[in-house]
Amino acid sequence: QLQLVESGGGLVQPGGSLRLSCGASGFSLDYYVIGWFRQAPGKEREGVSCISVRSGTTSTTESAKGRFTISRDTAKKTVYLQMNSLKPEDTAVYYCAADPLALCLGGWHKVEYTYWGQGTQVTVSS
Questions:
Q1: What pLDDT sits at residue 22?
Q2: Measured between alpha carbons, how far is 51 from 30 in angstroms, rounded to an integer?
Q3: Is the Cβ–Cβ distance between 19 and 83 less than 8 Å?
Q4: Eight-state DSSP code of residue 104
């Protein structure tokens, strides 16, 4: 069974950091694009960052550039999202998603990804 599991969310003060993990089971990530998305209450889901696991190509949306970094560990079948300088507006449920046909290029977040994790809550508040 193909499964993605996110972890690492929590409560952090503004300016703090968190590292989210997206672990895969039941399949190899090697030929997938992994995207991190988030959805805040009352708002539409938005893309945050993606990575092509095989090539290492990444793309990050403007709101996260310079603060968030996506990376992968293929041996551990895990993709990470390092989030620094967190702001209250980063508060959301963060999801990772995988798709074998997506491209980690402009518009990556508009693709309908095949596999989704259950999400992890990130709350930035003092």
A1: 97
A2: 11
A3: yes
A4: S
Chain segment 31-79, per-residue pLDDT in tens: 899 999 999 999 999 999 999 999 999 999 998 999 999 999 999 999 9
Alpha-carbon span 126 to 113, nearest angstrom = 34
Instruction: State how far the Cα of 110 lies from the Cα of 71, in Å rounded to an integer.
Output: 21
| Interatomic CA distance for residues 63 and 85, integer angstroms | 12
* Helical H segments across 34-125, by residue range: none
Decide: 6 and 21 in contact? Cβ < 8 Å: yes
User: Reduced to 3 states, what is the DSSP secondary structure of residue 89?
Assistant: helix
Cβ atoms within 10 A of the Cβ of 53, count? 21
Q: Which residue has the tokens 């702001």?
A: 87
pLDDT score of 122:
98
Query: Of 81, 54, 61, whose CA–CA distance to 70 is shortest?
Result: 81
Residue 68 exposed, middle or buried by CB count within 10 Å (0-12, 13-18, 19+): buried
Q: Which residues pair with 18 in a beta bridge?
A: 83
